[in-house]
């Protein structure tokens, strides 16, 4: 969802006592005239049609009402605010109509915020639902505090070294997972996931900037999962320091020391239409495009792949398992292991060694993935991966 660069106004009519109706009668023409000036050149349609319409996108001011000469009840800050209002209001959305005015394709957020204030001032009163929003804003929900620290035991380090993969359950509590599931589903429902149209993969993905995660209350649930995945490099190093006698190779030790949290993550959805991802390496030197792109984000920079699954109530008939092959084996091998994508399960594996695939899915399958990068490769390329045209984050 684009940052709040539009404005919206919602209105409805209220039955009023005769005395109140008479006291307002003298003001009706003035208020009506002010509103007409605010929405000059405006298109008009039902709220539901407005939410479906591409014409209502861009830098616009919304006015929503149940009829002419009705009092405004809400002034918001963008198309996303209009959608949120439609979803949360206790008013009958079937009776609401929308008019919108285009302010210009390149209108700045500051100009549109000023327009919101101007609209409220022109109305001559504080819309009722805005007053409620202000009151609730003084009691902001605390940002989720779950997640954040990735904890690994000696057995996890040894499995990562021996098998190229470790599977861990229980890093995230139930409440944190419930919120994360709702948030990742919202990414898809809002149309923020896209199919990359790459051969061999059917997933829809959203690339997330770690420094500018999607805004809005509905996406807050992703933050503990992101914090957890970004802590994997430090978590592995903490475990290495605590288990100096662990039986792991110098290659794995070196990778743990060199890996760093990425600037970008990916949320992905595999649909129920047998969507899959064919067997591959996340860091494959045989791939011509392996060393192409922004340092720190190139496939060749990947050290460990870190996945958190967000699939509540997963059962075997949902399929979509993660399949991996023994180190050194190819896809023709009859020796493989399937991992159920259970909600809260975290998988960490060696990006350059583990051949893996996503089996065809029979239900929606969600996951968030981070690829730790090799600091030694990136430091030889540029001072900072952030300085080289980072991928756009969602906002």
Automatic annotation (TrEMBL):
UniProt protein name: EGL nine 2
Gene3D superfamilies, per database record: q2cbj1_9rhob like domain (2.60.120.620)
GO MF terms, alphabetically ordered: ferrous iron binding; L-ascorbic acid binding; peptidyl-proline dioxygenase activity
Keywords in alphabetical order: Dioxygenase, Iron, Metal-binding, Oxidoreductase, Vitamin C
Cofactor: L-ascorbate
GO BP of this protein: cellular response to hypoxia
InterPro entries attached to this UniProt entry: HIF_prolyl_hydroxylases, Oxoglu/Fe-dep_dioxygenase_dom, Pro_4_hyd_alph, Pro_4_hyd_alph_FE2OG_OXY
Record-annotated Fe2OG dioxygenase domain positions: 261-374
Any Pfam family: 2OG-FeII_Oxy_3
């Amino acid at each position: 969802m684009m940052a709040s660069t539009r404005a919206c106004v919602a209105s409805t009519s209220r039955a009023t006592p005769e005395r109140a109706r008479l006291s307002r009668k003298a003001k009706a023409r003035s208020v009506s005239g002010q509103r007409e000036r605010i929405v000059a050149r405006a298109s008009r349609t039902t709220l539901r049609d407005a939410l479906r319409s591409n014409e209502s996108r861009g830098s616009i001011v919304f006015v929503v009402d149940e009829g002419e000469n009705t009092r405004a009840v809400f002034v918001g800050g963008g198309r996303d605010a209009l959608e949120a209002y439609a979803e949360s209001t206790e008013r009958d959305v079937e009776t609401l109509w929308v008019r919108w005015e285009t302010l210009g394709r390149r209108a700045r957020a500051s100009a549109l915020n000023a327009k919101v204030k101007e609209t409220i001032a022109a109305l001559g009163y504080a819309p009722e639902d805005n007053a409620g929003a202000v009151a609730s804003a003084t009691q902001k929900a605390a940002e989720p505090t779950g997640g954040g620290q990735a904890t690994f035991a000696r057995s996890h380090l040894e499995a990562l070294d021996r098998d190229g993969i470790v599977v861990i359950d229980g890093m995230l509590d139930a409440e944190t997972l419930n919120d994360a599931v709702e948030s990742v589903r919202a990414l898809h429902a809002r149309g923020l996931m896209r199919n990359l149209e790459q051969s061999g993969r059917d997933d829809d993905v959203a690339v997330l900037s770690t420094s500018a995660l999607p805004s809005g209350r509905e996406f807050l649930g992703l933050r503990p999962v992101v914090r957890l995945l970004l802590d994997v490099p430090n978590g592995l190093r903490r475990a290495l320091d605590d288990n100096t006698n662990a039986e792991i190779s110098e290659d794995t030790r070196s990778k743990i020391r060199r890996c760093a949290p990425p600037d970008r993550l990916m949320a992905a959805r595999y649909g129920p239409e047998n969507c899959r991802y064919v067997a591959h390496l996340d860091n494959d030197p045989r791939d011509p495009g392996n060393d192409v792109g922004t340092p720190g984000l190139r496939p060749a920079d990947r050290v460990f792949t870190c996945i958190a699954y967000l699939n509540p109530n997963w059962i075997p008939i949902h399929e979509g398992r993660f399949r991996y092959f023994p180190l050194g084996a190819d896809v023709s091998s009859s020796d493989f292991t399937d991992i159920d994508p259970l909600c809260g399960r975290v998988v960490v594996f060696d990006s350059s060694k583990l051949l893996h695939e996503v089996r065809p899915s029979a239900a929606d399958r969600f996951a968030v993935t981070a690829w730790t990068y090799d600091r030694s490769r990136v430091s030889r390329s540029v001072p900072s991966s952030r300085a080289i045209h980072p991928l756009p984050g969602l906002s």
